[in-house]
Amino acid sequence: MGLTQETYIKKYVSYHMQDSKLIETLVDKSLSLSCDMCPKTLEKKEKMSKVPYASVIGSLMYSMICTHPDISYAIRLVS
User: What is the pTM of this model?
Assistant: First the structure.
């Protein structure tokens, strides 16, 4: 017997982050986020302010705790 939340994760992320790229690989441990990656223009900042990141991160953390500990590094990185 197995338990997966792949459909839940894909549905939730695709609904709230339609323009995001989904990847099927693990996160490179050398990857780091910086302030240089932040939106610079007012238009991009306004667009980014409408993305429900906290809600998405919370839902992914639920999946991580229940069935997907393999995504914990990626969740920590973006949260």
Answer: 0.48
